[in-house]
Structure formats: structure tokens, C-alpha cells
Automatic annotation (TrEMBL):
Protein name: DUF1736 domain-containing protein
Protein source organism: Cherax quadricarinatus (Australian red claw crayfish)
One Pfam short name: TMTC_DUF1736
Record key words, sorted: Membrane, Repeat, TPR repeat, Transmembrane, Transmembrane helix
Span of domain DUF1736: 337-409
GO cellular component, one term: endoplasmic reticulum membrane
InterPro entries noted in UniProt: TMTC_DUF1736, TMTC_O-mannosyltransferase
Lineage start: Eukaryota, Metazoa, Ecdysozoa, Arthropoda, Crustacea
Length: 567
């Protein structure tokens, strides 16, 4: 036997280190958490003084489920706005856990808005922490992880979800979203640790194995961690363990903690169910988990040469599908055969008689949502009615934007699939988060009660931030200046946008996106609301009175519950 063809386990570890063991140094450090929490608190601190505005009025201040005039059990049979789910006027937004947090907030800290805002800010920081923990599992560099998390932390499009109190539904859903992905990833790792433990049995000191054409001698190794690392390395090199699974990062004494593989898969389903009771689109986390499992095994799936290792993958995918169907059926059962009724001002495109108009407009709306994330300058709290003109012709220039967007999305998917390493997994996971979490808002499966809502982008922006973090890490020497400039611009815009949400008046006066028809509707509602304020001693400006008269605002009292977004 050729002396040069032999190596001991120590020598092989030096040459072929297990990614799981190699990446122990990438565990988030304390300073990273401090940076994220400090940034999150600072950029939203000036939103603490805000009042209840817009949808906060009907979801909190006039909601019997929050005020405590209804029983706790009734919360689970009412929609997000306090109506019975079986009421014909109900919007069918079933978020009882979010409503209970509002109720608990009022009971423990009082009805002062500052405490509601404070809880939202803390929840946002918790989301950023979970994102940090998730990204470190991808074995990305510290700079890439921190870039993605800070971009998410400071993004201005989150002001509606964080500074607007009803955005708590999105915050809670996002917490369960990230927790479910983290738990599911641990389930995959648990499977390969079990395989590793089984493979270690029967390998005696001095035994020789054929490994990829090389004769390898196994020697005694001090400690079980080294044995685990060697087993993980051996299985990686033979193609059994997919790239990106850190099976060697825990020692023998810790393998039994946290539950087995199927227990963790079950916990993923429970988290998805809990998230759905915070906000409905949290159910899509099961699609993201399935996509992540396929991403890790995509090379084995392409080869189709390792059927036995792929059997657990198919079983996990079946379990995810079954849990998703059960949660969806329970959600539909709560509707008792009824469905929400929307008006043409909620979603004009869905009421268009032209199939071409509906198709082109619905294809364009995701483009506009992504553009708001890329260029979050022109923001709006209400995109209803005519805020986004319908696309009625193939000659509309916005169709070009749609073609460019979907072509770019395909090219990005192709690049991520063909690439190798941690960046490839990050790109594919980012696309999964961006696309799957936004599916319920696309009108693809059912019409929704809004044209566009910025708080809906809170979860999809996880994928956007991850893609941006990977992109920033590729710009070379100017990476740090570019990142600092981007974070500075985002932070300033967020701080400025927070002030827009101080009162209903400031929110209306800063409405610079919607056309005049929407401004007129908002003005009508604002003036009617101001007329109900007995403490208001200052007359309305003359320009407001003239416009309100021209609009022929109804004289009957306007109730905020009559006009709100179902998103």
C-alpha cells in the first residue's frame, strides 16, 4: 500500500474539515446582538409619542375584545375588528392571539399609546434577533449576516408595522415565522446527527476504510466531539450529508437535547398554526421550510442516485403538507362557509369585468411592492381606491416593468441554483422568503381586501434584506462605505416617517402618494372625525372647509370601523 495514500483521522480532519465544526466561530457574539437591539430601539424611539391612528381606532380603541367588555372566549370567535366571524359585515381577519396581546397590554400597562408602541418596538427587536440566529445557521460571514440584519432593522417600509400599533399582527407572525424555520433546520440536522451516531458504531481503532478511492486508517481520538467531526466529514465526502448541515457542531452529550427529528418537525407545524392565529399569511412558512429542505438536498435530487438518504426528505415534506392542510381546513371551518365581502374601493382590479385588466394589474402589483422596498421614499398608509391606476392595455408602459421584474427574478433564481457555497443557499432562501410569504397578497388564489399595504411587506422584506446583505458583501473594498450610507439613509427616512404616524392629522397631511381622489376621501373622513372632537377649539383651516364642502361630506357621524384595510 502506498504510504502517501494513507492518512489518519487527524490528518484527514486537517484537510477535510466538517463545515459544521469549522463554522463554530460564526456563532453570533454579544456585540452583534447589542448593535442590532440598539439600532432597532434608536430608529423607532421617536415613534413612542404617537397616538392611535388609522386602523388602530377600530382594532383597539373601539374593539370590545381589547376593551375587555367581551369575554376571553369570545375573542376566538370574533374577527380582528371585534365583529363576529359569522357576521355578514365581518372582514374575516382571524387573529385572536394578536387581539389578546392588545387586551393584555391594556390590562397590564393601561390604555396609553406609548406602552403599545413600546411593545411593538421590543417585538421588532426580537424579530431582528431571530433573523440573526437564522442567518448564522447558513454559515455566512459576520459582515454579511450583520449587513442583512441591519438592513432589515432600519428599513423605512416597516414603519407601518412597527409604529402603527395594529402592525403587531405582522410582528408576531414574523416571530413565529423565523422560529419555525430555525426549528425545522434543527430537525434536518437532528436526522443527520442520528445517522452519524449510527455510523460511528463498529468502527474500531486501526480499522481501514475505502473512501473516495483512498485508503483511510481510523485511529483512537480523544473525545467524542472529534469522532463526531470525523463521521460528519466522512459522510459529507461520500455525498450523504448535504452541504450546509452542521452535523458536527454538537458533542455526544448534547445530541439528545431539544427532541428528536419528528418532534422538531411537529413543533414547526405548531409554530405555523400559532403564527396563523397572529396573522393568516404565517401559514406560508411551511412552504419556506419545504423549499429550504429542497435547497439543501438539491444536488442529490438532481442526481437521483441516493434514494435512501432522500426518503427522510420526502417524509418531512409529506408531514409539512399534512400539517398545512390541517391548519388551512381549521381556518376555513372558522368561516363556516362564508367569505369576506369587499367593495370596489378596497380592491378595484378584482371588480374589473375585463380579464386582461385583472391579469395585467395583478401581475404589476408585486413589482410595485418590490419597488417600494428598493426605493422606500414615497410611502402611504392607504393605497385603496384609485391610488394605483388599473392597467387596461398591453401598451401600458408598466407592463415593461413587469417583464423586467419577472425576468430578473428568474435569473436570480438560476444564479442561486447554479452557484455553490453558503451564498448560494442564502440567495435561494432569500427568494423563498420573498416570494412565498407574499403569495397570499397576490390575489392569485383569492381576492384580498386591499390594493397594497406596507405592513404586508414586513415578512417578505426578510428575503429582500438577505438578498441585499449578500449583494453588499460582493462589492469589495467599498462594501463598508456603501453599507453605512445605505443604513444612514434608511435610518433617517424611518425616523422621519415615524413622525408621520404621530396623529391622524399628520398622517393625512403627509399623504403624498395617493392621487387626489384618495386624498379627498381621507380629507372627508378626517374632517368628519374632527367635528366629533368636543375639545377641538380651533376652527378648521379655510382651505379644509372649502374642500370638505366641495366634497359634500356626509353629515352623519363617520365611524372608523367603516373604513379600514383588511391587511
Amino acid at each position: 500500500m502506498d504510504r502517501g495514500s494513507e492518512c489518519t483521522s487527524h490528518q484527514c480532519r486537517a484537510r477535510f474539515k466538517s463545515p459544521g465544526v469549522q463554522e463554530r466561530e460564526y456563532t453570533p457574539r454579544t456585540w452583534m446582538f447589542l448593535v442590532v437591539w440598539t439600532t432597532g430601539v434608536l430608529v423607532y424611539s421617536n415613534g413612542l409619542t404617537g397616538d392611535f391612528v388609522h386602523d388602530d381606532i377600530s382594532a383597539i380603541t373601539t374593539n370590545p375584545d381589547v376593551l375587555g367588555t367581551s369575554t376571553v372566549s369570545q375573542v376566538f370567535f370574533n374577527d380582528f375588528w371585534g365583529r363576529s366571524l359569522w357576521d355578514s359585515l365581518s372582514h374575516k381577519s382571524y387573529r385572536p392571539l394578536t387581539t389578546l396581546t392588545f387586551r393584555f397590554n391594556r390590562f397590564m400597562l393601561g390604555f396609553t399609546p406609548v406602552w403599545f408602541h413600546l411593545v411593538n418596538i421590543l417585538l421588532h427587536c426580537c424579530v431582528c434577533t431571530l433573523l440573526l440566529l437564522l442567518l448564522q445557521q447558513l454559515h455566512l460571514q459576520h459582515s454579511t449576516v450583520l449587513s442583512a440584519v441591519l438592513i432589515f432593522t432600519t428599513h423605512p417600509v416597516h414603519t407601518e408595522a412597527v409604529t402603527g400599533v395594529v402592525g403587531r399582527a405582522d410582528l408576531l407572525a414574523c416571530i413565529t415565522y423565523l422560529a419555525a424555520i430555525i426549528v425545522y433546520n434543527r430537525a434536518i440536522e437532528r436526522h443527520y446527527r442520528n445517522m452519524e451516531a449510527e455510523g460511528d458504531e463498529g468502527e474500531d481503532e486501526g480499522s481501514a476504510k475505502e473512501w473516495n478511492g483512498r485508503r483511510v486508517t481510523l485511529v483512537a481520538d480523544p473525545g467524542t466531539a472529534g469522532r463526531a467531526m470525523w463521521s460528519a466529514t466522512r459522510r459529507r465526502m461520500t455525498g450523504i450529508v448535504p452541504e450546509g448541515i452542521g452535523v458536527g457542531e454538537e458533542d455526544e452529550g448534547r445530541r439528545g437535547g431539544g427532541g428528536g427529528e419528528w418532534v422538531l418537525v411537529g413543533r414547526t407545524g405548531v409554530l405555523a398554526g400559532v403564527g396563523t392565529m397572529c396573522k393568516e399569511h404565517a401559514l406560508t412558512v411551511l412552504l419556506v421550510c419545504a423549499a429550504w429542505d429542497i435547497i439543501l438536498h438539491r444536488r442529490s435530487l438532481c442526481r437521483l442516485s441516493a434514494r435512501r438518504p432522500l426518503q427522510p426528505l420526502f417524509r418531512r415534506l409529506f408531514c409539512l403538507s399534512a400539517m398545512g392542510v390541517v391548519i388551512l381546513l381549521l381556518r376555513l371551518w372558522m368561516l363556516r362557509g362564508s367569505s369576506p365581502v369587499f367593495s370596489d374601493q378596497d380592491n378595484p382590479a378584482s371588480f374589473s369585468p375585463s380579464l386582461l385588466t385583472r391579469t395585467l394589474t395583478f401581475w404589476y402589483l408585486p413589482v410595485l411592492n418590490v419597488w417600494v422596498m428598493l426605493y422606500p421614499w414615497r410611502l402611504s398608509h392607504d393605497w385603496q381606491l384609485g391610488s394605483i391606476p388599473l392597467i387596461t392595455s398591453l401598451h401600458d408602459a408598466r407592463n415593461i416593468a413587469s417583464l423586467v421584474f419577472y425576468a430578473s427574478l428568474f435569473l436570480l433564481l438560476r444564479a442561486g441554483a447554479l452557484a455553490k457555497g453558503s451564498d448560494s443557499r442564502a440567495v435561494l432562501l432569500g427568494l423563498s422568503l420573498l416570494v412565498f410569504s407574499f403569495l397570499p397578497a397576490t390575489n392569485l388564489f383569492f381576492p384580498v381586501g386591499f390594493v397594497m399595504a406596507e405592513r404586508i411587506l414586513y415578512v417578505p422584506s426578510l428575503g429582500y434584506s438577505l438578498l441585499m446583505g449578500v449583494g453588499v458583501s460582493r462589492v469589495g473594498r467599498v462594501r463598508a462605505p456603501c453599507l453605512l450610507l445605505l443604513l444612514l439613509v434608511f435610518s433617517c427616512r424611518t425616523l422621519h416617517r415615524n413622525t408621520d404616524w404621530n396623529t391622524r392629522e399628520t398622517l393625512f397631511l403627509t399623504q403624498n402618494t395617493a392621487p387626489q381622489r384618495q386624498d379627498a376621501l381621507q380629507l372627508c373622513q378626517l374632517t368628519e372625525g374632527l367635528r366629533q372632537l368636543r375639545t377641538c377649539q380651533v376652527p378648521l383651516p379655510q382651505s379644509y372647509q372649502i374642500m370638505a364642502g366641495a366634497l359634500e361630506c356626509p353629515q352623519q357621524p363617520w365611524h372608523p370601523a367603516d373604513q379600514h384595510e383588511s391587511g
